[in-house]
């Protein structure tokens, strides 16, 4: 069971449209997120990672910096980056939300970070609507966190895209 704020973002994203595998960003009315906006962010996928476009005030206080234009992976420990890259890849490949359970601060207090894929204005699936959901009061009060530790990530709901499969044509493997 997820934090109620995590579930709210998942429900909001799911309501954007079931006909398209990945909904358009233009379909999202940010006011539907209400009190979650200070902990929400929008990022653009770049290579294996993502770059912040917008980040709510709580997230900027949490990290102790203005985030627009910064790479999201820089806020993760070196050992966590492969798991985070995999979560970013999965949210687009499977066209569904992915939740990362992470630790923050010296005592590794927990938070859930949700990633949902969106299409940009040109139709490219390259936007991430995300949310930081602190699971304890101690996490809500953290400031200037310079590194997160990813513990696990999980895809939520059914994948909207068929899984990739391999086939052979004239002895060559193709996807």
Overview of this protein structure:
This protein is of the alpha+beta class and 175 residues long. The chain has one domain: PAS domain (Beta-Lactamase). The chain has four helices and eight strands. The strands form two sheets. The chain has a six-stranded antiparallel sheet, with helices on both faces. Strands 7-8 form a two-stranded antiparallel ribbon. The termini are far apart.
Which secondary structure elements does this structure contain, and how are they paired or packed?
Layout: H1 4-14, E1 40-46, E2 49-55, H2 57-63, H3 81-93, E3 98-104, E4 109-119, E5 125-134, H4 137-140, E6 148-155, E7 167-169, E8 172-174
Antiparallel strand pairs: 1-2, 1-5, 3-4, 3-6, 4-5, 7-8
Keywords:
single chain; 175 residues; alpha+beta; Beta-Lactamase; six-stranded antiparallel β-sheet; two-stranded antiparallel sheet
Question: Could you write a compact summary of the structure shown?
Answer:
Helices cover 20% and strands 32% of the residues.
Strand residues, percent: 25-35%
Distance N to C terminus: 35 Å
Give the averaged pLDDT, no decimals. 88
Q: Strand tally, please?
A: 8
Q: Helix/strand/pairing class, anyone?
A: alpha+beta
Major sheet details:
6 strands, antiparallel
* Rg on CA atoms, Å: 16 Å
Estimate the helix proportion, in percent.
Answer: 10-25%
């Amino acid at each position: 069971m997820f934090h109620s704020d995590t579930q709210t973002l998942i429900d909001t994203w799911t309501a954007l449209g079931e006909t398209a595998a990945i909904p358009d960003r233009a379909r999202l009315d940010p006011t539907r997120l209400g009190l979650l906006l200070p902990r929400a962010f929008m990022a653009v996928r770049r290579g294996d990672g993502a770059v912040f476009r917008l980040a709510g005030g709580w997230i900027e206080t949490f990290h102790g910096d203005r985030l627009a234009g910064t790479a999201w992976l820089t806020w993760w420990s070196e050992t966590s980056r492969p798991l985070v890259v995999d979560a970013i890849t999965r949210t687009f490949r499977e066209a569904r939300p992915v939740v990362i359970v992470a630790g923050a601060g010296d005592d590794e207090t927990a938070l859930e970070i949700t990633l949902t894929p969106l299409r940009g204005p040109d139709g490219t699936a390259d936007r991430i609507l995300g949310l930081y959901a602190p699971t304890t009061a101690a996490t809500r009060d953290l400031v200037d966190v310079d590194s997160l530790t990813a513990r696990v990530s999980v895809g939520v709901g059914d994948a909207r895209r068929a899984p990739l499969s391999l086939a052979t044509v004239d002895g060559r493997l193709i996807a």
